[in-house]
């Protein structure tokens, strides 16, 4: 791959400084000639967490967003137009992005930083004299680096390669793997899907004991042992390793069974109502952000809320809205319908999952920060739904699967409605109808959290039709465009990677 995409320089004085959100260190050490202390490596790793917009288009690809051209004001530079190529699944979604698809570059830059940490942290000098403390710090930083590298490869392989299939993974092309810290010219080719997933699992298997045995509380914006376990459970689900996914998710829930409880919110007539709101502020929209790192069910948060501008309220900025099909997928009594979305007085559905309080919701936000929430989040709800899906694939697992579904759904429904419309009966399902129910539940629970596109890819890859300014486009069932195209600037300098089929 092109060196500037895969390699930040090890000389820290030449590294780029990324703006930091709350909970992140401000910058990598600029006054050092080379990395030497544990703090140097910790700050370099902090740089790799990417506290900026990276994937603003990922939910635009899904059936959870609508583009309403009638609301578009041609007199303004509408930010929706930037992502229209992605919304219409152009052969390369970059066609309407002025800077192209930057996720590939950003994630591989992040991986390079983790490589540097993993390779060199054992030689770092501590800031204290106690060698036991220094060793614990080194090992914790290394564990974080392994977990973060796995997280980056997990995203890359689920964007730029086909979904994992145990029957074909040994020969199916994945993505390039780079574990080096040198900057020599080199041709990078794709590893197989099997090799890529083995790399991800291997990194997490190294990360978890390092983080467990060397605990340091860095908050939820950095990887912990429980967050790494949650990611591993998700990886096993994608690999269709049902028993391993069950064991890992159960371990997470045993340590933290908390769920975001919406039953009290369901009793609030301002929240649970069909009445539209003209505008939203802290005064007239009670409740807290669903994806806040302060919530006990949240295990890890990364980046910033990437859908804020895309789903903001000013038509001069965007004409993307949560889709009608998503809004109508919630059952009577499901509080999430009104906690995540709400119609305004014009009848348009507005996004409010993070419930922005710092500024009026309709204000234009020049610089987003973590005060506006996150979209890459690991939380316990995912563990319950992983358990439900994994058990549903087992011949005798329907009762267990429905049990985990009901545990989750009970705290998302109004108390008076759960018994009548929310509780599910194992007798009502066969394996296929249960899986479809679980996938719909995932859609409801994880909307606008960068999960829907991945779930569509790994399950049914259905046909979807989107509408643009002048017409429509259809993503056919099993369409090759369910795999995003490698960015053109990468193909230009490293054609050995090979474009994805179209």
From TrEMBL:
State a single Pfam family of this protein: SusD-like_3
GO-annotated cellular components:
cell outer membrane
Give the transmembrane region(s): none
| Gene3D superfamilies (alphabetical) | 1.25.40.390
The residue ranges of the SusD-like N-terminal domain are 24-237
Answer whether the UniProt record assigns the keyword Membrane to this protein: yes
* Domain (RagB/SusD) ranges: 374-501
Major location category of this protein: membrane
Localization of this protein: Cell outer membrane
**Keywords from the named record:** Cell outer membrane, Membrane, Signal
Family per record: Belongs to the SusD family.
**What is the protein named?**
Tetratricopeptide (TPR) repeat protein
- Organism listed in the record: Butyricimonas faecihominis
